[in-house]
Amino acid sequence: MTLEEEALFANDTFYLAFTHKDFAAMERLWAADHPTLCIHPGWRALVERDEIVESWRQILGNPQQAGIDFYNASAKAFESVVMVTCYEELPGSVCVATNGFVREGGDMRMFHHHSGPCADPPAPTGPGDRRRH
Fold first, then answer.
1. pLDDT digits (tens, 9 = 90+) for 6-39
2. In sequence order, which residues have a C-beta less than 8 Å from that of residue 112 and are 6 or more positions away?
3. Domain architecture of the chain: domains with CATH
4. Long-range contacts of range 89-98, CB-CB < 8 Å, 24 or more positions apart?
5. Cα-to-chain-centroid distance, residue 46
6. Residue 129, pLDDT score
7. C-beta separation of 83 from 102 below 8 A
8. Is the pTM of this model over 0.70?
9. N or C, where is the chain less crowded by C-beta within 10 Å?
10. What mean pLDDT is predicted for residues 44-72?
């Protein structure tokens, strides 16, 4: 499996944890040793792993938090780092996201997530491209 394929699998894992509100899976996915950065739509930048994990605890613990679909995921490796871009479909809006992954302890771990509103999102390309979780 290529680094890009591993990162796309980890990206699927991220959105699965989000939709199923699986905090333990989300916490495991985030890098423990690599520097981290997370920017949720409308939030300030979070750079410490502890505050990122706490933000996910709040989001996933919110009973009003809707599920999320994502589509048009593509990955690009830059040496040992892989960046995945995709579109996030929430009720009433679409965001564009970048998710960064790095190998840590033999597994792909997320070190970066940045999501924000997309004014002109593309349609999903290809059959089965939209991931429904």
1. 999 999 999 999 999 999 999 999 999 999 999 9
2. 36, 37, 38, 83, 98, 99, 100
3. 3-119 (3.10.450.50)
4. 89/130, 90/66, 91/66, 93/117, 94/118, 94/121, 95/41, 96/121, 97/70
5. 14
6. 54
7. no
8. yes
9. N
10. 95
State the Cα–Cα distance between residues 83 and 75, nearest whole angstrom: 6
* Structure token pair of residue 120: 């002109």
Residue the block writes with tokens 């989000």: 18
Q: 123 Cβ partners below 8 Å, 6+ apart?
A: none
Q: How far apart are CA 83 and CA 7, in angstroms?
A: 8
Task: Tally Cβ neighbours within 10 Å of residue 44.
Answer: 8
Q: Would you state the pLDDT for residue 20? A: 94
**CA angle, residues 98, 125, 18, in degrees to nearest 5:** 40
Choose among 28, 47, 34: nearest CA to 80.
Answer: 34
DSSP run (H or E) holding 88: strand 81-90
pLDDT in tens, 83-132: 999 999 988 899 999 999 999 999 999 999 999 999 999 999 865 555 54
Q: Measured between alpha carbons, how far is 70 from 129 in angstroms, rounded to an integer? A: 9
- Structure-derived torsion over alpha carbons of residues 31, 46, 43, 4, reported in degrees to the nearest 10: -30
